[in-house]
Amino acid sequence: MQLSKLAKIIEPTIARKLFMLAREYDDVINFTIGDPDIPTPTGIVDAAYEAIKNGRTHYSANLGIDQLRRAIAENIKKEHDCSYSDDEIIITIGAMEALYLSLMATVDSGDEVIIFAPYWKNYENMVRLCGGKAVIVKSCQKYGFIPQIKDVENAITDKTRVIIINSPNNPTGVIYEKSFLFRIIELAKEKSIIIISDEVYRSIIFTDEAPSSIIEFPDIKKNAILINSMSKAFAMTGWRVGYAAGDKEVIKAMMVFQQNMANCAPTPSQYAAFEAVSHLKKYSNEVCTVFRKRRDVFMEEINKISKLSIQKCNATFYSFIDVSETGMDGERFAYELLEKEHVAVIPGIAFGKGYENYVRIAFTLDEEKIRIGINRLAEFIDKECETR
Ligand code: PLP
After folding, report:
1. Predicted TM-score of the model (pTM)
2. pLDDT tens across 331-345, in order?
3. Which residues have any ligand 1 atom within 6 Å of their CB?
């Protein structure tokens, strides 16, 4: 079959390749995927069950069910003192669709979209699918994986339309400081650049203070689209519910795309999401408590390995680790670790050029598996370093 040009521009990601390869081993400890292995809280499951029993099994409005949008708007108001009306929020098929629709609504062919590296590869692919050009601004461990403002300034051209921000960040786990966000917003305002802020890891945090959100800044609505989802906060990845909040005009454009793409997010899942966001603190604390314990076990085990350079992880369930002291680059490290010890991690190169010495570990597994996996990883490093 003759495929379109579009069909050929996206290649399978290294992350996916590793994930598929890992499935070939039945005793594998799979640290590749950002999908919490814990069940969705029962109250949320029950809400979906009730919805299905009560016949909520049809299409919803393109924007999503009213009560869910209203509940999200109320939470935003409570948390950030920022007002969004019902038609300034669209419910989507996960954050992924929200991101994609946002880019479709803002990026024209040839426009440039700035992405801070290391980054979640889907951003780049989505930008390309929209006909845009991804412009990558690197950050390094020396500066805590926070991009330098000078580098952001240098990356801006007349064609820059969007800056994508992802804090807390996949793959580094870093939370951007308010002062950094402020500088980016100032730049964006000055140059009429739109900010798309992906905050899907906002509630997986291990600090006392909540991360700053883009919408906390005054007069931001016209310039920014907030993206969030139920996936990580409530262990609901498979339910596929996310949302975007923004100015009426952009949300309307996204709604028109939605009419022609998927019509709406799955209706029973939207009712489950309504239960989740109506008791946001209760459910997200439940999930976050599990991850805090996992983070502690992970840090305790990984810190025993002297040849790895680790940043303390204050958010998300990811750790981005420099493995260069082992004498291997991230790719070799990942493939050999899988082959020899049946532990799967993702090479840093999957998150952008310049991160060849890194691997990303997702501690989405239970504490026992984390201990086993990191012990195997330690043995692997010992053996490899001995034979060198
Ligand atoms: N944004 C980031 C940074 C992610 O890492 C992921 C998934 O791993 C998503 C968005 C997708 O979230 P959702 O499941 O809501 O589509």
Report:
1. 0.96
2. 999 999 999 999 999
3. 34, 94-96, 120, 166, 170, 198, 200, 229, 231, 237, 242
